[in-house]
Amino acid sequence: MKKLLLLLMWCAPVFAYSQGFQVNLGGQKQIGMGHTGTGLLQDGASVFFNPGAIAMLPQNSVSAGISPLWFKSGFNPTGTNDKYFTKDRVATPIQAYGVWGPKDARWKFGMGIYTPFGGLTDWGTDWVGKYAVQSLNLKAIFFQPTLSYKLTNALSVGAGFVYNHASVDLRRAIPLADASGNPGQAKLEGTGKGYGWNAGIFLKTKTFTAGLDFRSKVDTKVKNGDAIFTVPTSLAASFPQPNTFNAGIPLPSTLSLGLGFYPTNKWTVAFDANFVGWSSYQALAFDYASNTSALADTYSPRNYKNAFALRTGAEYKYTDKLALRFGGGYAATPVKDGYVTPEVPDANRYYLTGGIGYKLAKRLDIDLSFEFEHLFTRTQTNIETQLSGTFHSNVYIPGVALSYHW
Amino acid sequence: MKSIKNYLYISAGLLLLASCKPTVETPALTAGTADFSRYISVGNSLTAGYADGGLYLEGQLNSYPSIIAKQMAQVGGGAFTQPLFTTDQANGSGYVKLTGFTATGSPITAPVTTNLAVRGTATIPGFGTVILYTKYSGEINNYGVPGIKLQQITYAPYGNLNGYYERMLAGNAGTNTTAYIDFVTAKPFTFFTDWLGNNDALGYATSGGAADALTPKDQFAGLYNLSIGKLTAGGAKGAVATIPDVTSVPYFTTVTVGAILAGVQKANPSVAALYINARSSADIATTTYAPRAATAADLVVLTFPTTKIGQPVAVPGVGNVPYGLTPYAPIENQYVLDANEITLTKDYVDDYNKTIKASAASKGLAVFDAFTFLNNLKANGMVIDGVSVNSNFISGGIFSLDGVHLTPRGYAIVANEFIKAINKQYGSSIPKANVSAYNGVKFP
C-alpha cells in the first residue's frame, strides 16, 4: 500500500509536450530506443506506432505504463535580467495496450489508450507574461480499438478508430485591477471530443522490417466550456456570468515511416521519420456564448507549419532476461517565429533516451526508460502579445511499464 | 521494508528532477559610460508621481524616477529616497477615486479626504492662499514638485508659493528664498533626469486658454539652457524628456464636441451646433475672443460639467437663452481649448522641444521624446506583455483619473522609455522594468 501511495504521489492526471504540444510517449520499449517503433515488432504499443504490425506479434499481451514528465522552462524578458520559471508540475502521459488473437490466426484485435497530445505549463499567477497566459493544462486521451490482418507472412495491415476525450484549463490575468490592486482573471475550463483513425502497413523480411503508418488529424471540439471571469464588481456587467465558450483544436496528423535492422541476434537497430501535419493548427479561437463590448470572441493566429522528426535507437539483448536500449533524435518545431507563446514555448529540440527491459517472470516484463529533451534557446517577440524574451526549456521523462504476455 | 526504501530512493530521484531548472542566461550588466551612484530626478508633478488629481503615497511609490532607480540599482545605482508622505498621511493632498459607473457608462468619482498630509494654509501677500503639507526632512533624490514651471526654477520666493516645494524646504511659507534650481543642485550627484517644462504650456492649455500664460519662447530657451548648464556643471550625465503635445492627453480628448452635441440632439433634434467663446487668432499678440459654432477641432476639457448645456442664461437685451446653444451664451473660454488656442500651444510646445533637444545635444544627454511617444500612443496604442494600452480615458490604462497624469502602468512605461534612451546614449544596460507588475486605473 505504501508503495502504491509513493508512486501515486507523482501521478497527477496531466500531460505534456514533445513537439508543439504533441507527446510521443507511445511505449516504454520504444521510448528507450529513441521513440522508434513504426517499423518494429516489439509489443502492444504497435497499436499506437503501427496497427499494421499487430497481426505479426507473436503473442497476446496486456501492458500499462506511465511516463511522468517534467517540462522545465525558463524565460528572460528582453532587456531585463529577470528570470521566470514554470512551476513544478508533473504531467503523466500514460500508455495501456492489449492485443489478442487466436493462436495461428491471421488477425489480431488490439486496444490502446494513450495520450499523444497535451500540455501542462504553469508560469504562476504573477509573472511578466501573466496577461498572455498564467497556465495551460491541455489533455487528450485517445481510445483506439484496432484490427490487424496478416495478408502474407511478410505483409500485414491494420487500422483503428480513434476517439479522443480532451480537456482544457486555460488561465490568464485580465488587466483590470480591483480596489486592492489585484488584477482580474479569465479561467476557461471545458471538455471536448474528437474522432480520427490510425492505419498502417508492416513488412517483414529476413533482413529487415519496415512500417508505414498514418495517424489522422483529430478535430477536437470543446463545447459549452465554463468561461469564468473574475473582475472588479463595477465591471461585472461587462463580463456576464455564468458564461460558456466553444473552442476547437485540430490535433494534427502524423505520417511515420519506420525501419528495423537486425545485425546480430542480439542487436536491433531502428529508424523512424515522422511528418506531422501541424499546418492544420492555424488559430486558437474562443467563441463566448455572451459577448459584450468588453468581451469579444478571441481569435489568436497560430499559423503552425508542418514539421518533421527523425529518430533512431537500438536494443541490445544482454542476456535472455535483460535488454538494454538507447536512442535519440531531433524534432523540428512547428511554431514559426513570432508565434511562440509561453503556453507552448516550442523550439527545435534534440533528445536522448535510454532504457532497460527485464523479464520478471516467464510472462511478465518490466520496462524502464528515461528521456532527456533539450529545446534550443529561442528568443521571440510574440506578434499578438508583444511578450518578448528568451525561452530555455528542458524536459525530463522517466517511465515504467509492466506487460503480461501469453 | 527494503523495497519501500527503494521507492523512497525513486521518490528522492524524482524530487531531484523536479528541482532542476534550465539555465537562463541574462545579459551582462554595465553602467556604460554613466555613473548612477547618486541619481536625482528634477521635474514637476509627473516626476513626483502625481496621479488622480493629487499627490499621494501610492503615486509617489510608483513614480517613474523611483522605477528607474530600482532598475539602476542593478548597474551600480545607489539609494534613491523620495519625499514620501507617511503611511498615516498616505493620502497626501487628497485625490479622486473611481466609485462606479452611471447607467450610460460614465465614470463616477469621489474625492478622498481622509488621512491627508495637509498641515494648514498660508496667506502670501500679493499671491494668495497656499495649502501647506506636512514637512519632509531627510534625504531627497526625487525633486519632483507638482505645478512647477521651468519659468519658476530661478525664482527665489517660489518656496513660499508652492506647498509641494515648501514641504521639502526647512523654512516655513513666507520665509523661503531658495530657488528650485539651486535647491536640487546643492548636493553633488552623478546622474539626473530632467522633465521640466510641461506646465509652461499645460497650465495655459488646461485652463482652456483662459487663465495662465504660455512661457515666452526665448525665456524658456534661456532658462532651459541655464538649468542644463547647472545640472551638468559637476560632470553629471543625464536624460531629459520633451514636452508632450497637450492634445495627446485624455483631459482634452474624452469629452468631445460631437458627443455633447449628439446628447443634446437626442432630446432636441433641431439643435445644429454648440457655441463656444473662441480665440479669434492664433497670433500670440491678438487676444480677442468671439462666439462661434464649435467644430471637432475644438477640445472640451474633461472637467466640463456637461449638465450646464441648455440651462437658461439671462442675457441682457435678449432674454433667457440656453447655455452653449446660441452665440449669446457660448460655452465659456475656460472649458474649451479652441482651434486657435491649440495652434498657438502647439507652436510653443514645438519651440520648447527644439530647445530641449538642442540643449541635450550640446551636452550629450539622453533624450526621451515624450512628444513623439505619446502622439504614437494616441494614434496607434500599443501592446506590452499581453496588455493593450492606449490614450483613452480610464480604459486606456495609462492615464489616471485626472486625464493628464499617469497610472502606475503609465509611469512604468515612461520609466522604460527613459531607460531605453539612457542605455542608448551611455552604452549602459539598465534592465527594463516589468510593466505588467504595474496597474492601470483601479476599479471598485
Give structural notes.
Chain A has 406 residues and is mainly β. Chain A has one domain (23-122, 139-163, 192-218, 249-282, 300-405): Porin (Beta Barrel). Chain A is built from 3 helices and 21 strands. In chain A, a hairpin with a 3-residue loop joins strand 9 (183-204) and strand 10 (208-215). In chain B, the strands form 7 sheets. In chain B, strands 1-6-7-14 form a 4-stranded parallel sheet, sandwiched between helices. Chain B has 13 helices and 17 strands. Chain B folds into 2 domains: 39-86 and 136-249 and 338-437, SGNH hydrolase (Rossmann fold, 3-Layer(aba) Sandwich); 257-295 and 299-336, no CATH class. Chains A and B meet through helix 1, strand 2, strand 8 and strand 21 of A and helix 1, strand 2, strand 15 and strand 17 of B.
**CATH architecture call of chain A:** Beta Barrel
CATH level-1 class of chain A: Mainly Beta
Class computed from helices, strands and strand pairing of chain B: alpha/beta
Summed up, the helix count of chain A is 3
Major β-sheet of chain B, in short? 4 strands, parallel
- CATH structural fold name of chain A: Porin
How do the helices and strands follow one another from N- to C-terminus of chain A?
HHHEEEEEEEEEEEEEEEEEEEEE
Order of helices and strands of chain B: HEHHHEEEEHHEHHEHHEEEEEEHEHEEHE
Q: Gyration radius of chain B, to the nearest Å?
A: 25 Å
